[in-house]
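Comment thread on ticket #2218

A.B. wrote:
> Attaching the input chain for the structure job we discussed in standup.
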Amino acid sequence: MLNIYASQNGLLQKLDDAADYARLADGVWIDMMEPTKGEEIAVEALLRIDVPSQEEMREVESSSQIYRDGDAIIMTIRILGVTDRPSPILIAATFILTPTRLVTLRYADPTPFKSFVARASKEDGYLSSACAAMSGLLEAVVGRIADILEGIGDELDDVSAKLFAQNKEKITQGIVNTDLQVVLKKIGRSGDLASRARESLHSISRVMPVLQRELASHPSEDVSERLTTLRRDVKSLLDHAAYLTSKIQFLLDSALGLINIQQNAIIKIFSVAAVIFLPPTLIASVYGMNFEHMPELKWLFGYPFALAVMIVSAILPYWYFKRRRWL
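C.D. wrote:
> Ran it. Output below, let me know if you need it in another format.
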């Protein structure tokens, strides 16, 4: 699908007749989302370059992510996809920057593209040039990552509060009654999300110098200031992501340590129980309870009663251990 955007009175305006390839030349920003073969050919004819394939976009070497083809600079970055799934994903998005227009190529619809369209439709200056459009898109991507990192920080604070409660009541509520498997899953998901956010930020940091060099040939004070601010934001977010990663590792070690302590406490209880009941068991095994006067032997319901007592004596400890969450 092709979306063609032009600047009208400084605001982003979507051209309705995007199916008419003749209108491609009117667009400042051409957005290709899961393009057909015909759409790829039309864009390649306009730009006089080869649009990278989906397989080429996944390549990780630097020479495949940033390179020049004629007057166009082709840059591929990683964008965080839907983050409410059990496993977050990274989406490859290619930016083809020419002196007169920006072309984006993607095979998914991440949130930053939607937010940029909504913002550029209300605020002017985002489509004043191709560099301005790309800087606006990168701002949306970085803003989304910042929100995700803030969410990770809040979740880690909640996990930390449960793991390291100060008083006895909080310890009972926060540790004993908390399923540590759930805590481990939260920590693991936060770590996965933080690592993918760092990967996305690193891919953006690699294209920033290229974008600033390209801007030098088409000076724009407003775009230059935005790129400088964006570069500082990326650096600060990388530092914050590194801090979150170290905190995640600390909480992971702490959670595993608490699990180990609980397991040791349970093993200690069973060890004590075994030591206490071992002598009576040994005596009962030696003598076999073979006394001459045992009223239960002549009682009609003696055998069912003995079976019931054995069953109850097995169920009661199991119920007690379950209630204390030792099992």
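A.B. wrote:
> Thanks. Noting for the ticket: The radius of gyration is 33 Å.
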